[in-house]
Amino acid sequence: MTDLLSLYRTMVRIRAFEDAAEAASQGGVTWGGAATGKPDEVRVKGPLHLSTGQEAVATGVCAHLTPADLLTSTHRGHGHTLAKGADSTKMMCELFGRANGYNSGKGGSMHIADFSVGMLGANGVVTAGLPIAVGAAHALKLRRADAIAVSFFGDGAINRGPFLEALNWAQVYQLPVLFVCEDNQISATTRSAPMTAGSNAASARAESLGIPATRVDGNDVQAVSDAAARLIADIRAGSGPQLLHALTYRQKGHVSVDPATYRDPKEVAEALKTDPIVRARATLEQQGLGAQAARIDAEAKAEIDAAVATASQSPVPQASAAYTDILNTGEGMWS
Predict the structure, then answer these.
(1) Out of 62, 254, 322, 323, which residue is the most buried by the measure of CB atoms under 10 Å away?
(2) SS3 category, 66
């Protein structure tokens, strides 16, 4: 069983990062709303998809991965990236469009990658991370590497073709890959259930291909950690692919400036009662670890405040940087 204080630390770091990024993205006119600030107060460049409320899934799974293990993420990938070991300051700089960000300020929130910790990248295309993870897992198997691949995806992804293609390939070749469905029950601005045929669809579709599926309360970080530990150990031992179906809740709108007025306030209020950080904090206090948890809270805030300060003061990319990282196809120069 993974130490709950360690799991709590990762969750609050993710929450602190998301809260700071959300605040930095406010300004101008919100989606469907009124002005919230001055345009020059908007420091996050481009769309920002928050994982607030889903911290237990990224934390519980990544607690059992090594830097050699490979991971693909989604457009809502800050939590996965932090939990896998990426640097919070370089991440914030990337969100701010700064030259010292992970992608030199040119990728933004949805394209952060850090190969040094096995993070192959977030992805702005729904379901695109699954076949990438399967390809990575196949490479690991061919190389006989002592590592696995993990792919996070949302419940909306299971209705797209690459989901079937990826799971089918992984099962046919018995690849070392864990598929993690972060079922936050809503696809962009629409409830997922009315758009998805069948009950318990993520698990049922995996099982129809012979892939074992495990359901877990995605707001209980210890439960996620325990399930992930077992599945990851099985995969390392040669079981082939597995699927973890974690039921959670996205507390914020689709993007940071989305007020999510399409959701019933009563539903949101009820969901907030199962906030994974609140639940973990309550358990820690019951164990007499409230003071340690408070220190972790303060440390996380200080870390992210420092990241924001660095990002705010860092330089933007030079115009010439637009021409770097571009493949020369031999068809002529960019002009």
Answers:
(1) 62
(2) coil
Structure tokens at 257: 């400036």
What is the DSSP annotation of 70-83? EEE--SS-HHHHHH
Q: Could you tell me the strand order of the sheet in which 119-121 lies?
A: 119-121, 70-72, 149-154, 177-183, 242-247, 213-217
Q: In sequence order, which residues have a C-beta less than 8 Å from that of residue 13 and are 6 or more positions away?
A: 82, 88, 300, 303, 304
Give me the helix-helix angle, 55-62 and 221-236, nearest 10°.
40
Measured CA angle at 191 (ends 262, 124), to 5 deg: 95
Residues 6+ apart with CB under 8 A from 270: none
Question: Dihedral sign, CA of 278, 279, 284, 285?
Answer: positive
The three-class DSSP label of residue 247 is strand
User: Do residues 164 and 131 lie in contact, with contact meaning Cβ atoms separated by under 8 Å?
Assistant: no
Q: Which of 87, 112, 88, 108 is nearest to 98 (CA)?
A: 108
**pTM > 0.70:** yes
b vs e for 64-82, b when ≥16 Cβ sit within 10 Å of the residue's Cβ? bbeeebbbbbbbbbbbbbb
- Partnered with residue 37 across adjacent β-strands are 28
Span 203-227, pLDDT tens digits: 999 999 999 999 999 999 999 999 9
